[in-house]
Amino acid sequence: MRANYHTHTWRCNHAVGSEEDYVIHAIEQGFDILGFSDHTPQFFRDGYRSGIRMDPEELPNYCKVIRELRDRYRKEIQIHVGLEVEYYPAVFSDLISAARDQGVEYLLLGQHFLGYEQNQAYTGAPTGDEEILRQYCEQSMEAMQTGAFTYFAHPDLICFKGDDEIYRKHMRRLCQEAKSCGLPLEMNMLGCWSGRNYPDMRFWNLAAEEGCQAILGWDVHAPDQICKPEAEKTLRMAAKQLGMELLDTVAFREI
Ligand SMILES: [Zn+2]
Ligand SMILES: [Zn+2]
Q1: Is 139 helix (H, G, I), strand (E, B) or coil?
Q2: How far, CA to CA in Å, does 129 sit from each of 2, 21, 163, 167, 172?
Q3: How many Å lie between the centroid of ligand 1 and the Cα of residue 52?
Q4: Which ligand neighbours the alpha carbon of 222 most closely?
Q5: Ligand 2 centroid to residue 130 C-alpha, Å
Q6: Per-residue pLDDT for the chain (255 aa), expressed as one digit of tens each?
Q7: Which parts of the chain fold into alpha helices (H)?
Q8: Among all ligands shown, which has an atom nearest to the Cα of 12?
Q9: How far apart are CA 230 and CA 210, in angstroms?
């Protein structure tokens, strides 16, 4: 089975193309399963609106459009509706109830910001601050413990430029938590082909040492990004050399 569970839509304001184009490209590339996991709405209490995610009122239409595609393309590909979610404890229960109401099937953890997002730098911004690294690990570990997430997208998004020993000390704990929660870790295809700070081999060495499971996630923000054979080869080879188990599919955790 060939699966990608990490797919965005135009609603996040930084992805392009129609939902159907993503489906057509996935079929052309031989995928059996395509999961949409657009950047989740967050139910901020003070009227804050983020420019990189759908608004709460867009969630019903997002789910409806994907379910229509699921039915239309049933014979060619399995389509699922999910969300890529930052864990913000203060508003997490609101998100869970909205996701249940709308029949969202799975959540990916993607911790792009810390705290409650507002006044926080993007997690992938370079930093030498151990406190930011520590907070990233703490918040992600708390998220894993909720049991709501199906896998952890780009767990190595944090761009720590300080001492490697400090990096390993904190990130090893994150890997150990993923292992004990049975949560697969995503090797991110977008980061690989676009030359971002992730996949970070410092992290994947730790993940392999701790016996974590990995899965590839294309993280597509445009329909043709599902076709990246060189990056796919690179990451499959890396997993093999590390002796990591690379999953083809995942079972969804109940939300
Ligand atoms: Zn995005
Ligand atoms: Zn993503």
Answers
A1: helix
A2: 39, 41, 10, 10, 17
A3: 7
A4: 1
A5: 25
A6: 999 999 999 999 999 999 999 999 999 999 999 999 999 999 999 889 999 999 999 999 999 999 999 999 999 999 999 999 999 999 999 999 999 999 999 999 999 999 999 999 999 999 999 999 999 999 999 999 999 999 999 999 999 999 999 999 999 999 999 999 999 999 999 999 999 999 999 999 999 999 999 999 999 999 999 999 999 999 999 999 999 999 999 999 999
A7: 19-28, 59-72, 92-101, 130-145, 164-181, 189-193, 201-209, 229-242
A8: 1
A9: 27
Instruction: Provide the residues around ligand 2 (an ion) whose CB is within 5 A.
Output: 84, 219
Cα 243 to ligand 2 centroid, rounded to whole Å = 26
Ligand 1 centroid from CA 212, angstroms = 25
Residue carrying the six token digits 């390993």: 168
**pTM of the predicted model over 0.70:** yes
Closest ligand to residue 191's CA = 2
The CA distance from 241 to 239, in Å, is 6
- Please answer whether residues 6 and 219 qualify as being in contact, where contact means their C-beta atoms are separated by less than 8 angstroms: yes
127: which DSSP letter? B
Å from CA of 203 to ligand 1 middle: 21
Q: Is 6 helix (H, G, I), strand (E, B) or coil?
A: coil
Q: Which-ligand-closest: CA of 37?
A: 2
CA 121 to chain centre: 18
Alpha-carbon Rg for the chain, nearest whole angstrom, is 17
Query: Would you say 2 and 12 are in contact if contact means Cβ atoms under 8 Å apart?
Result: no
How far is 5 from 121, CA to CA, in rounded Å?
A: 26
Query: Can you tell me the distance from the alpha carbon of 193 to that of 229, in angstroms, rounded to the nearest whole number?
Result: 10
- How far is residue 102 CA from its own chain's centroid? 20
